[in-house]
């Protein structure tokens, strides 16, 4: 019996979350923005928003499309429209002024 895992579709994208302290991503096209509280990453299946604190880029392999992030991860969500995300950020910024 073989335990081969085969994904029939391309592009591939995997998310490995370990103890809410580290996350490993594949299928990464581009890191749009990041700081110690938030990462916005373009993946082959859409934009992924990662929120937490003390977040840091642990590893980035642009050729393989792989990213490692460490810190205290509070949430991860896919953003269907990047423009909506930017508008929400601007609105939040205005409220906090």
Describe the structure.
This protein has 97 residues and is α+β, with helices and mostly antiparallel strands. Helix content is 15%, strand content 53%. The chain has a six-stranded antiparallel beta sheet. The radius of gyration is 15 Å and the shape is globular. The N and C termini lie far apart (61 Å).
Brief overview:
By secondary structure, the protein is α+β, with helices and mostly antiparallel strands. It has one helix at residues 82-96; strands at residues 15-18, 22-25, 28-34, 38-43, 46-61, 66-79. It has a six-stranded antiparallel β-sheet with strand order 1-2-6-5-4-3.
The biggest beta sheet is recorded as: 6 strands, antiparallel
* Number of strand segments: 6
Number of helices: 1
Mean pLDDT: 83
| Element pattern in H and E | EEEEEEH
Beta-strand residue percentage: over 45%
DSSP helix fraction: 10-25%
**pLDDT < 50 stretches:** 5-9
State the end-to-end CA separation. Answer: 61 Å
Based on CA atoms alone, the radius of gyration comes out at: 15 Å
The secondary structure category is: alpha+beta
Major sheet strand order: 1-2-6-5-4-3
Overall spatial form: globular
List keywords for this structure.
alpha+beta, 53% strand, 1 helix, 6-stranded antiparallel β-sheet, 97 residues, globular, 15% helix
Which helices and strands occur, and which strands form pairs?
Layout: E1 15-18, E2 22-25, E3 28-34, E4 38-43, E5 46-61, E6 66-79, H1 82-96
Antiparallel strand pairs: 1-2, 2-6, 3-4, 4-5, 5-6
